[in-house]
Write a structure and sequence with these properties.
Elements: H1 6-15, H2 18-42, H3 47-50, H4 72-106, H5 118-132, H6 140-155, H7 164-175, H8 177-190, H9 209-230, H10 238-247, H11 249-257, H12 259-270, H13 284-308, H14 385-403, H15 416-447, E1 451-453, E2 459-461
Antiparallel strand pairs: 1-2
Helix pairs in contact: 2-4, 2-8, 2-15, 4-5, 6-7, 7-9, 7-15, 8-9, 9-10, 9-11, 11-13, 13-14, 14-15
Length: 475
């Protein structure tokens, strides 16, 4: 750590120690999800159908325009993001009161930090107890949905299709990989004999616990891709290539943990001066780690733009399939561009079914390109949003792959730069969700039939919801 950074490091660890930074980042994640739901609804997207937001087992959603009571989707969507806002406010009140109590007790005195270290510990136990509380208090419905989604990501049947909401949930989890690592470090810092002012050293087998915990979201997402690939009706290799993308994160994480071996080898050659260097290019293990960082960053960026967002920027041209040569189907959507709602509503808040034709997902062969270079024919957001997000995604993808490397921050966990990189990754994921859901909505709409299209691109028959089948729990 640079000497010039030492005051900032000490100040941040003293005033805002790692456990409270974890609390804050988790709260930011809740707020991001609430604004994702709110923003998509304001854009006219039926978030309930688009995200397959039923979580009692695998429930197949209806089409974007379905035979539901007037205003059903709007009421459910409004209830979803309103509840998410309430959870965020309640959660923030808890950890903010805890942090205020901690600050008043320590009064900026480094000698008192560990004496009152039990305060963040008790706060963490309280939040965990509320999360798993079986009683109908403190947003039980929302808590149950969260725990059910997490359980499905790791323990769902290998023969059941993967809901799109679970795909988004697991992808968001990968952006919290470093935060999960911070949870482990916070627990270690709260153990007797350790201090909140700096993370403890990870020796022996303990050095592998941190990378294993950081790998959990990638394991969940990798598992989903394998399930999709092995599904009996799957005829695409896309889930396999997607699984490879998540697999490239594991070498980044574990080779980072192995960099301590690099330091030990070079210390025997150069002495203690090696601790003042951050570049060890002469060591093969260091070069291998750097290579997997580059591979993971480039592959992830390419997949985001081409597959998750459906943009044409890096797509390889392929001959059109026979079924792609037919004319575009009549769709129940108004024109999609520059923020125009995906579905219009009339003054009585009922859905207006207005059959209009929109461009197909790909330009017909031997025709001039009908959309801006690198994008696609159907766009919901204003045109400048797409190149801006592509650029931001590239920059933050590169930095986030490095951020997965625990050896770069275990000795300076309180750095302001480290905190802001984590915040930047959460913002990147927040923006990613908008374009990811936009592309999924376009894919479902282009399908046209009353079927559900999961992330593997397959379609499954679904049952329409009728007024009699709508229960109070759905609302």
């Amino acid at each position: 750590m640079n000497d010039a950074d030492a005051p900032a490091e000490k100040s941040l660890n003293l005033l805002f120690p790692l456990p409270y930074r974890v609390f804050g980042l988790l709260g930011l994640g809740i707020l991001a999800w609430a604004t994702n739901l709110h923003g998509l609804d304001k854009l006219g997207v039926d978030t309930v159908s688009a995200l397959d937001l039923r979580t009692e087992g695998v429930h197949l959603r209806g089409p974007l325009i379905s035979h539901r009571p007037a205003g059903y989707s709007q009421v459910v969507a409004a209830n979803l993001y309103t509840s998410a806002y309430r959870v965020f406010i309640g959660y923030t009140v808890i950890w903010f009161l805890s942090w205020t109590t901690y600050r008043l007790a320590t009064d900026g005195d480094a000698m008192l930090v560990d004496a009152y270290g039990y305060i963040p510990g008790v706060t963490a136990l309280l939040i965990l107890a509320l999360l798993i509380c079986p009683y109908n208090i403190f947003w039980k419905f929302e808590r149950s949905k969260f725990t059910q989604a997490a359980r499905r990501c790791f323990f769902s049947s290998s023969t059941s299709p993967v809901c799109f909401s679970d795909v988004v949930f697991a992808d968001i989890g990968t952006s919290f990989a470093k935060v999960l690592g911070d949870v482990w470090l916070s627990l270690c810092m709260l153990m007797p004999g350790n201090t909140l002012l700096m993370p403890p050293s990870q020796e022996g087998w303990m050095r592998w616990v941190l990378p294993t915990i950081m790998s959990l979201p990638y394991i969940a997402r990798f598992r989903q891709c394998v399930i999709e690939y092995n599904h009996p009706h799957n005829e695409s290799r896309r889930p396999l290539f997607n699984a490879i993308k998540y697999a490239t994160a594991f070498p980044v994480i574990f080779l980072s943990a192995a960099q301590r071996l690099v330091v030990e080898d070079l210390r025997r050659e150069k002495g203690d001066v090696i601790f003042q260097e951050s570049w060890h290019g002469e060591h093969q293990l260091f070069r291998l780690w750097l290579l997997v960082v580059v591979v993971n960053s480039i592959y992830s960026f390419w997949w985001d733009v081409t597959n998750d967002w459906g943009l044409d920027l890096f797509k390889m041209e392929s001959p059109p399939k026979p079924q792609e040569k037919r004319l575009p189907r009549s769709l129940v959507l108004p024109h999609l561009h520059s923020g125009t709602p995906l579905m219009r509503r009339d003054s009585q808040e009922t859905l207006v079914q207005e059959p209009l034709r929109i461009p197909p997902l790909e330009d017909p062969p031997n025709h001039r390109r009908t959309h801006p270079f690198g994008l696609r024919p159907v766009l919901i957001f204003p045109l400048p949003v797409y190149p801006l997000l592509i650029f931001l995604n590239l920059i933050l993808r590169m930095t986030w792959s490095i951020k997965l490397s625990s050896h770069l921050h275990t000795t300076s966990e309180g750095s302001v730069a480290s905190l802001w990189l984590e915040v930047a990754e959460l913002i990147r994921r927040w923006l990613w969700v908008f374009l990811r859901v936009e592309w999924e909505v376009i894919r479902k709409t282009q399908g046209g039939d009353p079927k559900i299209r999961y992330d593997d691109g397959l379609e499954y028959e679904m049952a329409h919801d009728t007024p009699e089948s709508i229960s109070q729990s759905d609302l």
